[in-house]
Design a protein that fits this description.
It is a multi-pass membrane protein. Keywords: Cell membrane, Membrane, Transferase, Transmembrane, Transmembrane helix. It is an enzyme of class 2 (transferase). This is Phosphatidylglycerol--prolipoprotein diacylglyceryl transferase. By secondary structure, the protein is mostly helical. It has one domain. The protein contains 11 helices and 4 strands, in the order H-E-E-E-H-H-H-H-H-H-E-H-H-H-H. It starts with a helix and ends in a 12-residue tail after the last helix.
Length: 290
């Protein structure tokens, strides 16, 4: 109530999400095609398309047939890893593991970025090991494509009116009232994540790959991605409302679950960048066998 009074005093009316006319999917009559599903599909397809362009450059560590395998296994890793990660990190008392029928009901929502990342890493390990590829260099190429999916996914979160931010006041002109977030204005943290984890990281990674020789320093692109995405997520978590079942955890520990999970990723990223810069760059790279 105090926040609403302050908003009125400041002369700013919060934006109401419902007034934006957004819908969470396309009604096809027999079922609704969710935008969240389309976001996953768009990110994966665009990433695959971009990877096929990247590997045409001299010195690519993989060939087209390897990219095709990665497209399949990374898709599985994103879906399975994202869901299992949510069940492990965010499901109260491992509820989803104790109710496996609900675990496979992906249409009810609940995906973890860190779980999806682990799934992608396992897919990279499998494809690289099976084909004798340099895992670190393959990871460099894949890391450039990940921000596409991050951008689309976070925009889909906003369109769905979910994962909104913490309560704020009228000093934030873009504060929004979300239908499931109560009457108080909140940070549209989904858009913050889309901008930092998606758009900003996309620009950084694309410039490094296409405008520099970073791809000839094994692990550099992976390290930059891991560090950047961790810093972005850590900062945005200060504006994002913790999951209801984990609010007590955040109060007890001082950080949200999302922030705790970014710390080891950040350490890994900084170590990978340091290692890559200390080693001499490859002369031309090593082309993969077609």
């Amino acid at each position: 109530m105090l926040l609403l009074t302050a908003a009125a005093a400041a002369g700013h009316e919060p934006i109401h999400w419902l007034d934006l006319g957004l819908r969470n999917g396309i009604d096809l009559g027999f079922f609704t095609l969710r935008y969240y599903s389309l976001a996953y599909l768009a990110g994966i397809v665009l990433g695959y398309w971009h990877l096929t362009r990247m590997i045409r450059l001299p010195g690519a560590p993989l060939a087209q047939r390897h990219a095709d395998d990665l497209f399949f296994y990374c898709t599985l890793g994103i879906i399975l890893g994202g869901r299992l990660g949510y069940a492990l990190f965010y499901s109260p008392d491992f509820y989803l593991f104790r109710h496996p029928v609900e675990l496979v009901q992906l249409w009810h929502g609940g995906m973890s970025f860190h779980g999806g990342l682990i799934g992608v890493v396992l897919a990279l390990v499998w494809v690289s090991w099976r084909n004798g590829l340099n895992l670190l260099r393959v990871g460099d190429y894949i890391s450039v494509c990940v921000p596409f999916g991050m951008l689309f996914g976070r925009l889909a979160n906003f369109v769905n009116g979910e994962l909104w931010g913490r309560v704020t006041d009228a000093s934030v002109p873009w504060a929004m009232v979300f239908p499931d977030g109560g009457p108080l204005p909140r940070h549209p943290s989904q858009l913050y994540e889309a901008g930092l984890e998606g758009l900003a990281m996309m620009i950084v990674m694309l410039v490094l790959f296409w405008k520099t020789r970073a791809r000839f320093r094994p692990g550099l692109l992976v390290g930059v991605f891991a560090t950047g995405i961790s810093l972005a997520r850590f900062c945005v978590e200060f504006f994002r409302e913790p999951d209801a079942q984990l609010q007590d955890f955040a109060l007890r520990t001082g950080l949200s679950m999302g922030q705790w999970l970014t710390i080891p990723l950040m350490v890994f990223g900084l170590a990978a960048v340091t290692r890559a810069l200390m080693k001499p760059p490859l002369a031309t790279g090593r082309p993969a066998t077609a």
